[in-house]
Amino acid sequence: MKTKIHAFAGVVALLMIATFWTSTLISELFADHATIAYVKQLILKGMFILIPSMMMVGASGFSLSQKMRGPVVEAKKKRMRIIAVNGIVVLLPSAFFLAAKASAGVFDTVFYSVQALELIAGLTNMILIILNIRLGRKLSGR
After folding, report:
1. What is the CATH number of domain 2-139?
2. Cα separation of 85 and 104, whole Å?
3. Residue extents of the structural domains in the chain
């Protein structure tokens, strides 16, 4: 059961991050400032799904890893630490900062610099989560 919860939460987290990333990129490239501000607000609301799913992934992964050892498990743990730090230090503060700036109609160099950092950090987390999903499937024999 823990394995299913872990897998489900991981996929939900990946889909949320991919949705945030894609909607940001599309709105930045093709939409007006009002739409960008709206997307930024929706991303903040989406955190109410992303954060609990990431917590479930971490907790269930920690629990599952207590019984396992080896390089595959250690690789997943190392990636998860990077994902967590990236999310807490870069992505979450960036989401709040960008939503506030966009809501105020301030689309300056600082906004776009933080936006670029957020896109890079989000892509990094997506790649790391995908790699962890692949390793998880290998661990479970799929």
Report:
1. 1.20.120
2. 28
3. 2-139
92-139 per-position pLDDT tens digit? 999 999 999 999 999 999 999 999 999 999 999 999 999 999 988 887
From CA 63, how far away is CA 44, in angstroms rounded? 29
Residue corresponding to tokens 């892509």: 123
Half-sphere exposure of 112 (CA within 13 A, CB side): 7
pLDDT, tens digit (0-9, with 9 covering 90-100), for 29-57: 999 999 999 999 999 999 999 999 999 99
Residue type present at position 138 = K
Q: Determine the residue type at 22.
A: T
Dihedral pair phi/psi, residue 42, rounded to 5°? -65, -35
Query: How many CB atoms lie under 10 A from the CB of residue 13?
Result: 25
Q: Hey, what are 38's tokens?
A: 């709206």
- Give 49: exposed, middle or buried? Use CB within 10 Å, 0-12, 13-18, 19+: middle
